[in-house]
Write a structure and sequence with these properties.
The complex is a heterodimer of chains A (133) and B (200). Chain A is mainly alpha-helical and 133 residues long. Helices cover 47% and strands 0% of the residues of chain A. Chain A is built from six helices and no strands. Chain B has 200 residues and is mainly α. The relative contact order of chain B is 0.10. The model of chain B has no long low-confidence stretch (mean pLDDT 89). The chains are: A mainly alpha (133), B mainly alpha (200).
Amino acid sequence: MKTLTMRIIISFFVLGLIFLWASDVPQNTATSNNHQYAIDGIHKKLSLGCKECHRELKQEDYSSAMKETCLTCHENYEKLKERTGHLGHNNNVHASPHFTNIDCDICHKSHKPSQNLCLQCHGQQTMKQLIVK
Amino acid sequence: MRKILLLTVIATFFASMILIWGGHKVVKVTGDAPFCGSCHAWDGLIAKTHLDDPVHGAANPKGVQASCTDCHLPHSSLIAYLGQKAINGFSEGWTVLTKDPTKKDWLANREHARKFYTYDSSCLNCHQSLLDQAVQTKDEPMSKMHLKYAELKNTKEAMQCTDCHKFVGHKELGLTLFQQNDKRPKTWEEWDKERLEKKK
């Protein structure tokens, strides 16, 4: 009788542990995702969520090819060219004669540091000083 | 006695009418390009970029145009409007008389101008329906942004319309200001001319 009681208690304990582990897993994943894929700046302030940029149905299908969603707000390259017009002919990265319609995320990264593609060939100091947001 | 009273009432009525009409006329005349330009010619080509703007400027194909004060004065109340107008008048006059426009960093000044010389109450004076529309179409991407703006309003995190709509009202302002300062040759001929002059 005593052994049976002990077995029941142990079974409940083990079940309890499994339940706790199971309920904890998605929470940990979400936290880790939020941390790993955190966004900042004005996009953070506007509380943009994953779905605002990634149009794929499943999270595992999310890709960085999302120019279309960027341009939902940022309109088109003509507008972007005007936006960075103050950089002048030599440095206006959005008025590149080489790449007229490239994906935004080649330079602008939401989840890791951004980079300036133009710097791969153009070494002028004024170009090096540009901060890609 | 009754006659004097009647005359006083009539005179007061006409004086008030003249004052109101005249005041309105003065505010209107001093709120658009020719008058504003008398001081703001100092700003160089900035006013021209407004004329070239296809949405808020004279270049709008439908002829709808915002005047300088439609955007650059607060529309929250008549007192705020007239008060800011008076302050700006003195401030601009003083600047024109005592400072040198060639020494000013006009490109960097855009941030300051957006923060202190554009007013949400002005934008919303015409675009109020955007916020109402956002409530009705809250799943649209633009609506989400505008709802966020409404949510943050009057908080420490409050945003200005021009935080996102940075270049509204002035076509190619950045490029124009850049070119105004850029003294380098613009064409091959100009490069060649400069090269030959350096050789001398």
